[in-house]
TrEMBL record:
UniProt superkingdom: Bacteria
UniProt protein name: Enoyl-CoA hydratase/isomerase family protein
Keywords: Isomerase
InterPro entries: ClpP/crotonase-like_dom_sf, Enoyl-CoA_hydra/iso, Enoyl-CoA_hydra_C, Enoyl-CoA_Hydratase/Isomerase
One GO biological process term: isoprenoid catabolic process
Family that this chain belongs to: Belongs to the enoyl-CoA hydratase/isomerase family.
Positions of transmembrane segments: none
Protein source organism: Motiliproteus coralliicola
GO function term, MF aspect, one: isomerase activity
């Protein structure tokens, strides 16, 4: 399936890696409904693309994402006052559907976090398989200071850093930098320069290329199923997947490459 043509985001496919850049620099890449829908259309298009093994999310011109676009909220409020059926609900839920879709993507999702990482931007950081932050990035959940709950974001924040820390951050609107984000377990790596961030990204991509794409897809789905499927049923499902993998193309190639002391085909062709 071809990648969609987008206005609010930029797409660049480099080999097996899709670079997706939020491109609303005039609003610090705050998310409006059009941007949310474009991100969803991209992840719809790549859901079955086994040739795309990683997606790198970042923002343009030094900011990752400043959250939701206040102008969109104001327009939805006006529409609600004019009698439309709760456009504010639909606006909010659209973001929730988008972040859930990105969370469940079969590809490895990497976020590069610079500048503003606020509200919904922090929510996106929370669903990254690998998150790399600039030390001076500004993280925060300012919703309650605006009289709003972080409605679609809160569950992902709790999953990422735990209830104790989530309560403090959400109920105070605290701001924090890349170092504290790493201490909280929100991000994995911290960079002190664009060059180091690029080097960290390439290091992670090289490691991903060494892993079989279908095995990664199955493994990610398994990890996301923990706590959502009954324990023994999940282990039964995992055993069936393991058996199929051993007999499958990747399992045969991987074990043969190991015996022959060579790189597997997916690593050679990356």
């Amino acid at each position: 399936m071809q990648l969609p043509i987008c206005q609010e985001i930029e797409l660049q496919l480099q080999g097996s890696v899709l670079h997706l850049t939020l491109n609303r620099p005039q609003a610090r890449n705050a998310m409006n409904l059009a941007l949310v829908q474009e991100v969803m259309s991209v992840f719809d298009a790549i859901a079955e693309r086994r040739d795309i093994r990683a997606v790198v999310l970042r923002g343009s011109e030094g900011n990752f994402c400043a959250g939701g676009d206040i102008k969109d909220m104001a327009s939805a409020r006006q529409a609600y006052q004019q009698g439309q059926v709760d456009p504010l609900f639909e606006l909010n839920r659209a973001f929730g559907r988008m972040i859930t879709q990105v969370n469940n993507a079969p590809q490895v999702v990497i976020t590069l976090l610079e500048g503003a990482v606020l509200g919904g931007g922090l929510g996106l950081a929370c669903i990254a398989d690998i998150a790399i932050a600039d030390i001076n990035a500004q993280f925060g959940l300012p919703e309650t200071s605006l009289g709003l709950p972080p409605a679609q974001i809160a569950p992902f924040v709790v999953d990422r850093i735990g209830l104790t820390q989530a309560r403090r951050l959400v109920l105070t609107g605290a701001r924090f930098n890349g170092y504290e984000a790493r201490e909280l377990g929100l991000v994995h790596f911290v960079s002190d320069s664009p060059e180091k961030m690029d080097a960290l990204l390439e290091q992670q991509l090289q490691q991903i290329r060494c892993c079989a794409p279908e095995a990664n897809r199955i493994t990610k789905a398994l990890l996301l199923s923990v706590g959502k499927i009954e324990h023994e049923a999940l282990l039964d499902q995992a055993a069936a997947q393991f058996s199929a993998a051993v007999m499958g193309e990747e399992g045969v190639e991987g074990t043969q490459a190991f015996v022959e002391k060579r790189a597997a085909r997916w690593a050679q062709s990356a």
